[in-house]
Amino acid sequence: MRNATDNAEALAWLAWQVEMGADEALLDAPRDRLSQPARPMRQTAPNLASATAQATAAGPREAPPVWTPEATRLVSNDEALASARALAAGANTLEELKAALGRFEGCDLKKTATNLVFADGNPASRVMLIGEAPGADEDRQGRPFVGVSGQLLDRMLGAIGLDRGSAYITNILFWRPPGNRTPTPAEVAACLPFVERHIALVEPTHLLLLGALASKTLTASNDGILKLRGRWFELQPLGSPAPIPSLATLHPAYLLRQPAQKRLAWRDLLSFRVALDKRP
Ligand code: URA
User: Fold this and answer.
1) pLDDT value of residue 41
2) How far apart (Å, rounded) are the C-alpha atoms in residues 113 and 140?
3) N- to C-terminal Cα distance for the chain?
4) Which of 114, 115, 132, 209 to mutate to test the pocket of ligand 1 (most atoms within 8 A of CB)?
5) 8-48 confidence digits (pLDDT tens)
6) What's the Rg (C-alpha) of the chain?
7) Are 204 and 123 in contact (CB under 8 A)?
C-alpha cells in the first residue's frame, strides 16, 4: 500500500518532470525504460572491412529492434490533406466545421491534445483574429487565448474598443502541440483547409493575423514577422467570396517576452481600428 511518503515522492518526481518540460502523457500506461536491457553502444569510427568480415562469419544478423511509437501516423500527409479538404468542404456551418474537425484523423496533434480548440467570441461580428496554436490553458479549457497571452490579447482588443463579443478568435492549429513545441509544416498543412473554410464561413470584413505562424501561413510569405507586421494584405482564402483586408501584427506571447515591441503592436492596432471604422 502506498503511504504519504510514497505519494510525496511521486508528486516530487512529477513536478520535476513538468519543470524539465515533460508535461504531456504520450502513452496511456507508463513504460519503465530503465528496466529495459541497454542496447550496445554504436562503435565510433568503425573499421568497415573488419566489421563486414565479422558480420559474414557470424551469419545472418538479427534485425535491429524496431521502435514502434504508439503515436505512429495512421495516414500519409497526402491522405491527411485529401481528408482535410473533403471534410472542410463538406461543412456548411461553423458547428459542422467543428464536428468535421472532431472526425478528422490526419493531424497527430489530436492524439496528444486534451481538447479540440475551435474558436471563441462572436462570429457575427465579422472581425476575425487568427493566432498560432493552443497552449496548455487553452488545451485544458477547449477555448483559444484563455491563458496569459489571452489576457494580454483581451487588453489589446479593449484598447481599440473590441472584446470577445465584438470579435471572433481562432488559431491556425486546432490542437496543442505537445510541450508547446513549434508546429511542423505537415501539421499546419493538415489544418489549413479547415482554417480556410473557417474564414469562408465567418466571412469576416477584416482579419487580424496574430504572430509569425498565422501571418506567414496565410500570406504564403517567408518574410519574418517583424517585416510582415503592420502590413495590410488582401487575402482570399479558398471559398471566400471576395478578398479580405488582413493585417499582420505581433503575437501577444511575443509581446510578453519583448514588452518594448508593444509600441509596434499599438501602431498596428490603431491601423486596424481605423480600417474597421471605415466599414460601411
Ligand atoms: N497562443 C495562440 O496563438 N493561441 C492560443 O489560443 C493561445 C496562445
Assistant:
1) 39
2) 9
3) 70
4) 132
5) 777 777 676 665 556 656 555 565 655 655 544 333 333 33
6) 24
7) no
Integer Cα distance of 49 and 163 in angstroms: 71
Closest ligand 1 atom number to CA of residue 143: 6
pLDDT at 72: 45
Q: Whose CA is nearest to atom 3 of ligand 1?
A: 132
Nearest to 129 by CA among 208, 216, 243, 225: 208
HSE value, Cβ hemisphere, 13 Å, CA-based, for 248: 24
Asked if residue 203 lies in contact with residue 241, where contact means CB atoms within 8 angstroms, the answer is yes
Residues of the chain with pLDDT under 50: 39-73
Pocket test for ligand 1, best of 171, 209, 216 (most atoms within 8 A of CB): 171
Ligand 1 pocket check for 135: Cβ under 6 Å: yes
Q: Which residue from 145, 195, 208, 256 has its CB within 8 A of the most atoms of ligand 1, so it is best to mutate? A: 145
pTM assigned to the model: 0.77
For residue 180, the CA-to-ligand 1 centroid distance in Å is 10
User: What pLDDT score was predicted for residue 12?
Assistant: 74
**Residue pair 186/77 in contact by the 8 Å Cβ criterion:** yes
pLDDT at 67: 37
Helices (H) and strands (E) in the chain, counts: 12, 6
User: Which ligand 1 atom minimizes the distance to the CA of 211?
Assistant: 3
Is any atom of ligand 1 closer than 6 Å to the C-beta of 138?
yes
The 3-state DSSP class for residue 170 equals strand
Alpha-carbon torsion (66, 72, 76, 79), positive or negative: positive
Q: Is 136 in a helix, a strand, or coil?
A: helix
CATH topology of domain 77-275: Uracil-DNA Glycosylase, subunit E (3.40.470)
